[in-house]
């Protein structure tokens, strides 16, 4: 009876955590969507274009935040409450230096205001630093607090900008509000992470792990956006507009099951093969359902994504949804490779990107269907290559093979950390 009760408690805890993280993800994406929509209503065309460009630059800079969060979560799950301060400071410093070098150049080339670029840099650095605290919550499997942290960071990152736009602050005012609220959120995240002490004898997080996770995150971002950029380059304006609407479906299928990877990552860090297989099954099932829905109601899907004028392009919907569903599987596999400390986990993604770019440039028909079909084939091949390298049998490591700080005895009941 005790075992059944414990099982029900754990399942209930994971289910509650999953719902919380899912709702937090919806909140994050919803606020990110509101910013350009509100900008279109409160900014002149030139400032709206600048806002969209700055948001894109911020998304690229935010890769370091996601990489830091993944690295901290994996290390925390594997080694307990180990020190993570030094690589966090180094990540923030390196990000700051890179932004200081790149943003002025971008400001000149993309005709962006100096104050706007500076405020974007402050906002991005705050978001990067927040990755540490989110990673610690994720690695400790305190998923309810993690959901709260995700919502807080989104409120700081996007909520401030939304308030600035709504109050008529213009481009600079909205960025100033976003920068201030993002910095304030950092203090709240530290408080949210209270009780997570440091074990001074645990091995510290290596900077190389952060770089590996950040590189994998960047590769995932590049390979999943490559088709959109190439469509902009090679397709005529009307067709590239249709393609841009289709990629909304791709991103939806890619990020919809993200909660599975968030919750599975701490267990993947301990080499739990069953968790990996279950995660792939759940993500694959969600992807299959989305592809089926796109096949049955493609016109509706395109209409919801881009407006009524795009409903007659619904025949392309299954292509875009399938591409996103396949990349969702790649996302799980890449996270598993990072969690397993694999060397060069992002290599298949970079190879896929290069092959896709070359194929579109020299061989693929420059039509919506041609580019979308090539993207689908690329995603499928990437799944096969990444899956083969991730799922191949491995020998059981001896005690001497295990990372320092791991235990050869029973793993602690980390499900008990799901915010009981």
Automatic annotation (TrEMBL):
Subcellular location: Cell membrane
Protein name listed in UniProt: Membrane protein involved in the export of O-antigen and teichoic acid
Annotated membrane topology: Multi-pass membrane protein
Cellular component aspect of the GO annotation: plasma membrane
Region entry Disordered, spans: 392-420
TM segment ranges: 12-36, 48-68, 89-110, 116-134, 146-167, 173-190, 210-231, 243-265, 277-304, 316-335, 347-364, 370-391
Keyword Membrane carried by entry: yes
Chief place of localization: membrane
Keyword Transmembrane helix: yes
Classification via InterPro entries: Poly_Biosynth_Transport (IPR050833)
Composition bias type Low complexity, residue spans: 392-403
Source organism of the structure: Micromonospora mirobrigensis
Keyword terms: Cell membrane, Membrane, Transmembrane, Transmembrane helix
